[in-house]
Structure formats: C-alpha cells, structure tokens
Amino acid sequence: MLRTISYAPYGGADIGEWLVTASRIVEGDFESWHKEWFRVAERAHALADEALAAGQRIGAREAYLRASNYYRTSEFFLHGSPEDPRMLSTWKLSRDTFRQTAKLMDAKVEQVSIPYEGTTLSGYFYTAADATEPRPILIIHGGYDSTGEELYFGGAAAALQRGYHCLTFEGPGQGSVIREQRIPFRHDWEKVITPVVDYAVSRPEVDPGRIALMGISFGGYLAPRAAAFEHRLAACIANDGVHTFRFREMGQKFMAGRTDYTFEEYEATVAKIMEHHSSVRWAVDNGMFTFQANSLSELAWKTEPCTMEGVADQVLCPTLVCEAEEDHFFAGQPERLSDALSCPKTYLKLTKEDGGEEHCHFGALLLFNHRVFSWLDETLKISAEPAGVLH
User: Fold this and answer.
1) Predicted confidence (pLDDT) at residue 72 exceeds the cutoff of 90
2) Helix 57-75 crosses helix 30-53 at what angle (to 10 degrees)?
3) I want to staple 274 with a disulfide (CB 3.0 to 4.6 A). Which of 13, 67, 281, 309 is the partner?
4) What is the DSSP letter of 115?
5) Mean of the pLDDT values across residues 321-334?
6) What is the mean pLDDT of residues 54-75?
7) Active-site residue numbers?
8) Is it the case that residue 388 has pLDDT exceeding 70?
9) Do residues 320 and 372 make contact, with C-beta atoms less than 8 angstroms apart?
C-alpha cells in the first residue's frame, strides 16, 4: 500500500482513490487485493479514455498514469499461480495504459528494444528537455518484482526534472522478460548490463563518460554485481544495498537456529508459515515465478550464487549504498555491502524520523531523490541543474 501511494508525487496515485481502495481490502486476502485494485484501475482507465476522446490531453495523461500504477498493484499478488490468465492480462493493461501516457507526455519517451543474447530487452528512453549536447544518463532497473513502467515513478521522472536522460529496462526475471519470454533471473547481471550500456553509448544524446546505474530492491545486489565487471559506469546506486540474496540464508531464521534440518523439514516449516504470513507467502510465490523454480529447495539452489562475495572489491566506480532503517527484507545487508566495497563509497541512511525507513524508502521518495541526485550531481561533476519538466 505504501509503495502504491509513494508514487503520488509523480502522478501515480491519488490519495482519495488509495484510501477508499484500502478500506475495501480484506486483510491477508490476495483475491480481495486484486479485485479492489483492479476496480479502481478500471475507473481511472475509463476516465482517461473519456478525456482522450474529448481532446483533454492533460486529464487523459494523468488518469492513464494512475491506471497503470493501479493495474500493476492489482497484479502484484497473483504470482502464486503463474498460469492464472489474469496475471498476464492485468500486467498488459498496466503496460498499455503507461504507453498511452507516454504518448501524451511533454518529454520525449521512446519504447526501445535492447539486443540481448539472441533476443531483446524492453525499455524506455527518456530524453531530457532542451538537450542540445550530450548529457549524463541514469540507467535504472528494478529488482525482484518491478516492471519497466513502474520505473518511471521509481526514478525516471526525478531524473527528467533534473536534466538527466534516463534509460529504464526490464532484464531477465522482470516484467515482460519473465512474463512473455519466460527468461528467469540470473546472478551474473553484468551479462545484462553490458548490452544495455552498449545501447546507451550508441545514442548521440548520451555523454559516454557520465553513465550512472541504479538498481532498486533486489536490484541493490544486481547493480553492484554488474558494476564489478562493467567499468564504463561512472557511478552506481544500490537502493537499497544488498550483499547476499540467498533463500537458504534468509530461511534459516524459520528453523529456530537449527542447522541440521533437511530440505523436506525446511519446506514443511515454510509452508506452514506461508499460511499465516502474507509477506512470506508472496516472497516464495514470486521467487518461484521469477527464478522458474519448481520447489523451495530449487529456489534456494538457484539463489545460492547471488552474493557479492569475491567480487565486491572489483567495483571501481563511486557507489552510493542506501539503507532504510526498518527495511523488513534486507536488514543488515546495506552495511555488509558497504563494508565489502573498496571503491569510493557513500552511505545514505534514511530513518523513521525522516519518514523514509521502509523498504526502498517508500513514503519518502521526494526526500530520497533529493539526496540521491545531490550525490549524483557531485559525483558526475554537474555544477548546475538544467530546467526540466516532469511530464
């Protein structure tokens, strides 16, 4: 819920719609979640269609943007049944309404296809306003559950406001790549980022010496991992920092300190917890979907290589490691990552006092972006902020 309303400053939600939807959701009921968010998404979608038909460009743009976020939110808890047709159809509605929005923005937004291992990765290239010479670019990817359209709210809008070009994309395990191409996550994210950087430097609008990368959530592991091998990056942002993403390690707390358990015991214990704990249920369902695992033990095996052990000291570019004080997913991980890095590094911690203590600082994105872009401006030696526009 906090994640959805966090996008309000960038046009992704309206507070009244959010509150009334929240009031109708039954606690712990994933079907109720889907039904109520889909309901408000359809209402915003219809409003957008009416405005477009009447020639009301701004009204249509605003309503399509909210509809996109609400459809994304509606689809979020459907991953426990990957063959559920609503998962694909609802996600497509989120993508399609965002693409309607993109056509109505003042900023130039291009749908791009990035060559990758015999196929392509879907992305969006956002061109900064009034760019007459090559500008710095921020490349953004998400993590465990992001979509390319969500990344507009998650950083692209803020980058445009500050005069940066922005390239967002979906990699293996994410968005269209997992839903349509069925390509799962991979731990060696440099194999993904290098083709993306190749694409970025091919654009004449981009200053090849000022390319920054930000990874969000699980992307807080993926981005530093890529930076350890892709040295054309001038800066890296881990939001939030993740040193190790292993289901085996994360699941050990469920075994009450035991180390002699079998995977059968582990799976039985987690299955019981999933019956009563929505976050655990979602984390396992989504992991099995995005890593294409058929069991919890297979998911543990597939996430075993997801660590910065042995590679963190190969990151050369300045890196911003972010921490949310009360992150319920990655407590302690940002500090582990920062300690392992030997490159120039900065540690950014938002706290309960800031209102940015939750995972990825949801609830305080304006503050978070203020701090991040202040660091990025200094790191890339950008002395003045060009006039920018949001839409």
Assistant:
1) yes
2) 160
3) 281
4) E
5) 93
6) 98
7) 217
8) no
9) yes
